[in-house]
Fold each of these.
Amino acid sequence: MSESQNCPSCKSPYGYSTGTLMMCPECGHEWNPEEEAQATTDETVVKDANGTILQDGDSVVIVKDLPVKGAPKSIKAGTKVKNIRIVEGDHNIDCKVDGFGAMALKSEFVKKA
């Protein structure tokens, strides 16, 4: 019997080879195992408001006033944030903002410093 792979769509462990492609018997999804291997090795690309690619450890500047839930004041435009970390999700930057502490920011509201 040939090697089975987990289905990237439904995570079923019963994927089987149909020659050049893999097939899932549970959901019917077909995929190319070589393309899937390349897709899993690609890193998340995060771009700032100007389209510049951001990486872990970069410094950024906030481009607009950002209200903070539960705080009496907002983070002002022009605030510099050092040593960012790129993460998965809607708010794709984790950082520490002076005067506010740990924050999760959206990349569309920052530009690379």
Amino acid sequence: MKSIIRLAATTVAVIALASGAFAAEFTKGTVKKIDAKAKKVTLVHEELKSLEMPAMTMVFRVKDDAMLEKLKEGSNIEFVAERVEGKLTVTEIR
């Protein structure tokens, strides 16, 4: 009986972790400025619910340099921002 409960608890934990990994919330934004040298992008964005941040204009680091190549000033994007090592970082773009 204990092993069934332990198995059920483990299964629930795995499902919760997996769903959290796929629950990245994309936010709409507009590229205002790109600083490739500093690996940063300035975005005018809607509310970032996952970071409890209102809509505003701010500078983000980018997780990967290749992301900067996909961006163009003035373009509308959808992105995911997270705190990575204490810094606000764009981790996904579409």
